Write the structure tokens for this entry.
Amino acid sequence: MLIIHASQLLTLTKQPQRGTHLGHLGIIPDGAVHIVDEHIAEVGTSSDLLAAHPHEPILDAGGRVVMPGFVDPHTHLLWAGDRAAEFEMRLQGKTYLEILQAGGGILSTVRATRAASVQALVDENRPRLQRALAHGTTTIEVKTGYGLETQAELRMLSAILQLDAELSIEILPTFLGAHAIPPEWRANPEGYTDHLCGEMLPAVASWWSEHASGRPLPFVDVFCETGAFTLAQSRRILEKAKSLGFPLKIHADEFDNLGGASLAAELGAVSADHLVATSKHDIEALAASDTVAIGLPCTPFGLAEAHYTPAQDILAADGLLALATDCNPGTAWCESMQFAIALGCRYMKLTPAQAIAAATVNAATAIGRADVLGSLSAGKQADLLILNVSDYRHLGYRFGTNLVETVIKKGVVCA
Ligand code: NIG
Ligand code: FE
């Protein structure tokens, strides 16, 4: 297939964009893409590609922007139950961590998720993934972490694998057994940490080799935060995961600066995420590593808090920055990377071009897939969007409406 007449073909770059290099869109005016099966074969101008491939079926973009599909590298999109009442409590003055400490928050979703069958999880979460796809997310990371016991966590992984097989959107799973201290371990967080290291992680590794037919192991993530896991507990869990061969991620500095970002850099984690209360020292440690800093602007927005990821400091230190939604029932129910971009422009002071690069090629790097995703480069997967606008800066500028007209996943029009 040949897609022609893109007003602006945003090719981005094959490689991630570090520090102040962020924002290279590689724009081809009146651009075209040649897709062969699931992959991009060539990009160029419409006249060159039409001349070279006169007999290919044509999809005319009609003077609209064509770009890579968004990669959303951090979500908790799979859950059961509802937390609308908690939103109202927060508006009336309760904080997120107060609600969690009183047994609500994540723990209320844990109760509902533990009670759900795999099929119920699949059915409840299918529409969320379809919405993400319709808003241009062609690949998404989805975490467990609402089971917090082996069997319930494995049901979540099972539901993720089923949804990945069923839907066009591609899902990369993360095991987040260390999302909160479950109620039955409340008095003994060290005991739960031992249980995670000694029982749950090995159980996930062996379940995976039996059920995921050759797919790479999921990521392992830890919520390193006051009221969740200490830095020392996070280190134990991540070191154990690393020894079992899992790639690593961490929730660091969402509320308090515990040093999780430096730990991520030291252990070679793929990403360190949230990074709101991150110190200068931690930013420097991250920037000196290949660990991607993921900013999640929907989260402070969702909590009506004033502080966002200090993106400019991360870029000035030469760090790798990506954007994600954090889609979850507590802090940020948002399936749209377009909205994360709009917030990133306003509160992280990114230009639209920087935000787009952070949401595509750098986001692909943040899930270890920059070799196949995130740019319109020959050989990468043909995951593309046709927007309903002719100037890419409408991404960022506009919000609350869907600017994606057509979604193509692995060469197939799917939304
Ligand atoms: O990324 N920080 C921890 N986890 C989520 C919230 C999960 C929830 O409240 O259900 C977050 O903000
Ligand atoms: Fe999160």
In short: The chain has a mean pLDDT of 97. Residues 189-211 form the longest helix (23 residues). The longest strand covers residues 58-68. Residues 129 and 169 are 7 Å apart (CA to CA).
